[in-house]
Design brief:
By secondary structure, this protein is mostly helical. Helices cover 57% and strands 6% of the residues. The two termini are 26 Å apart. About 8% of the residues have low confidence.
């Protein structure tokens, strides 16, 4: 991860700071999530349908989209669930995109891109204080913090 300083117009800084405060998160973390969503939307190629998949256009799936899915599933399960079941649920919810060749491609460590993206989204949610670290929730378990229980992406 690389840290950078940026200069924003006062009006923009006030809007971002106010939004971060409403969410109960640090301004830098909030900016990171916003920029991640923007970068995902800019760099994710258009989804190409494989011959065995119904052809329908997909909008790029952003890290924020994945965080939204992860938190919704954990809330549905009472606030905690095993990592494997969270990944399966998110996959099922976004299956029409995840079965395309782009998301099925094996990336770092021989893991499909869709699964790696879910892991990145989980780490961002943890860094934002929405999901407990493994030291608190147990290895292989994902658990919401109090802030994560209340978090609203809208």
């Amino acid at each position: 991860m690389k840290y950078v300083n940026i200069v924003l117009p006062d009006s923009t800084y006030k809007i971002i700071t106010r939004s971060a405060e409403k969410k109960g998160v640090d301004t830098a973390q909030y900016c990171s999530a916003l920029l991640s969503e923007f970068a995902d939307a800019e760099t994710c190629p258009p989804h190409r349908s494989d011959s065995n998949v119904a052809s329908s256009p997909h909008k790029p799936i952003t890290e924020v989209d994945l965080m939204r899915e992860i938190l919704a599933y954990l809330r549905q399960k009472g606030g905690a669930a095993p990592k494997v079941s969270v990944e399966e649920a998110v996959f099922e919810g976004l299956k029409s995109a995840f079965v395309t060749s782009y998301y099925s491609e094996l990336v770092g460590g021989g893991v499909p891109r869709w699964k790696k993206n879910i892991q990145f989204a989980r780490n961002t949610a943890r860094n934002m204080g929405l999901i407990k670290p493994p030291e608190e929730s147990g290895r292989g378990n994902w658990e919401l913090t109090e802030k994560g229980q209340k978090w609203d992406f809208e």
